[in-house]
Design a protein that fits this description.
The chain has about 475 residues and is mainly alpha-helical. The protein has 18 helices and nine strands. About 50% of the residues are buried.
């Protein structure tokens, strides 16, 4: 049986520094080398610092601050022009050359960092069971978030390194690590892993349902006098509604559309007033909110987000490094994807000002106000948003008319006209198109294709046409370092 050795440290020693991940006093931390584990978990504040440390580390470029959001995961999804020469930074990724040394190193680092984050979440969970310093609400909320973290990290590892579920659900996939020690952990089959993910998310949902202030007070991204800062900024935490979306994702990965539909419909009925769709004026005003912040259910708080934009999308990048659609605003992938120029998402693209033919994706560019300041969402990197619930409901609803209503509700909120598919196949094509528009820069499209085992997907390196996908292209190999550890 396959086994893995996870080299772990305590959640604090594993992080070189717990960074401040939200505004001012929300997180007040000390350098990790001055903290012992006993001191950390001896107070309520220490537990919050430990949890915030994991959120901060999610911003690492190796995982959700780069590779698993805006970077290589979206290159795998064929969003971007993959170049014609191997001098292009991302040349080997859209060609699914998992034997290339650079590609192998990238995904080896993803694997290691994700299991390090899992270790940190496991330590928090273990300490939650051993402590009496946390009031009931804090204990439930912290434990619920840590369980959601553990499940989310395993889900993304499974979706990346695991098999195509519809074809090989009983194939060995990844370990599911629930302890924070250095013992060898068995690899488990994909179907066992997804059941453990659902178990953790279900427990997290129950804990947060009785403790998460987002259900009563909303996200509180602008705290008022007298507010408990620990219960604010809930869109930057794995809150109750984020867990519902993760549960729906997990059930979809398992192939249980019935349960995914139930979860998404229940979540929509409660979430749409807390995470309202962006208005046209907010999305396209003088200071456009290109991340549609009001409807973001869970996001990273990344104070270096502007560097993410500069690393991947800025017009100052040369053609060897930039991530850009093939074609121009008038021909190629832009008009192919956006059937209406009135689409709020269309405005996320512009022509380069550098005199070349590159299209610039402006979603993560800072918007500077007249007084020189930036908006509250300038540090937001969305990972879960309200629209995904509508797309899940549209996909899983067996009543064609209801499914179409979910889809067209989303389109109307994006300032697009209704679509009129004639059958389920055309409806899925419409859903796929909306998913492509919604999830650019958020790391979900490759997993959508993989879940559907799609054999033909758009060719990002061409202004038109598709590439033929074989199923092994969807499965990133387990890192060599992991295999070596088990010899």
């Amino acid at each position: 049986m396959k086994k893995t050795i996870i080299i772990l440290k305590s959640s604090f020693l594993a992080l070189s520094l717990i960074a401040a991940v939200a505004c001012e006093s929300w997180i007040d931390v000390e350098p990790t080398d001055r903290l012992s584990e006993d001191k950390v978990y001896s107070t309520q504040k220490g537990f919050l610092q430990a949890l915030n440390g994991v959120y901060a580390e999610m911003n690492n470029n190796t995982v959700y601050g780069g590779h698993l959001s805006v970077g290589v995961i979206d290159v795998l999804a064929q969003y971007y022009d993959g170049g014609s020469e191997n001098s292009y930074t991302y040349y080997y990724y859209p060609r699914y050359d998992y034997t290339n040394t650079g590609v192998k190193n990238t995904f080896s680092n993803v694997w290691s960092k994700m299991y390090s984050l899992i270790s940190s979440a496991n330590i928090i969970l273990e300490k939650c069971e051993q402590t009496d310093v946390l009031p009931s609400q804090y204990q439930k909320m912290i434990k619920g978030e840590a369980l959601a973290m553990r499940a989310m990290f395993h889900l993304d590892l499974l979706r990346l390194f695991g098999p195509v579920m519809s074809e090989n659900a009983h194939e060995m996939a990844i370990p599911y690590v629930t302890v924070a020690d250095q013992n060898i952990q068995d690899f488990l089959t994909a179907d066992v892993v997804i059941d453990r993910i659902i178990h953790d998310l279900t427990e997290a949902s129950g804990l947060l349902q009785s403790s998460d202030p987002v259900l009563t007070d909303g996200v509180k991204h602008t705290p008022e006098a007298g507010d408990n800062i620990d219960f604010c900024y809930r869109q930057y935490r794995l809150n109750y509604f984020a867990v519902q979306v993760l549960l729906a994702r997990a059930y979809l990965w398992k192939g249980d559309q019935t349960e995914a539909l139930t979860i998404s419909e229940n979540a929509i009925s409660k979430a749409e007033s807390i995470f309202p769709f962006i208005s046209s004026s907010a999305a396209n005003g003088s200071y456009p909110d290109r991340v549609f912040s009001s409807e973001v259910i869970f996001a990273l708080y990344n104070t270096n987000r502007i560097n993410v934009y500069r690393k991947y999308f800025a017009s100052t990048l040369d053609t060897r490094n930039i991530l850009s659609f093939a074609g121009t605003l008038d021909s190629g992938r832009i008009p192919e994807l956006y059937d209406s120029q009135n689409d709020l998402r269309y405005k996320m693209w512009s022509a380069s000002s550098e005199g070349d033919n590159d299209l610039i994706f402006n979603k993560y560019e800072d918007v500077v106000l007249k007084d020189g300041s930036t908006n509250h969402y300038c540090y937001m990197m969305p990972l879960i948003r309200l629209s995904e619930l509508y797309l899940i409901a549209a996909e899983c609803e067996t009543d064609f008319s209801k499914a179409l209503t979910y889809l067209n509700t989303l389109r109307n909120k994006r300032n697009c006209p209704n679509v009129t598919p004639r059958n389920s196949e055309e409806l899925l094509n419409n859903i796929t198109s909306e998913f492509r528009k919604e999830m650019i820069g958020e790391g979900q499209m490759f997993f959508f294709y993989k879940r559907h085992a799609m054999q033909s997907i758009p060719n990002g390196s061409s202004t038109s046409g598709n590439i033929n996908m074989i199923m092994k292209n969807y499965v990133v190999p387990v890192p060599d370092s992991e295999i070596d550890n088990r010899l």
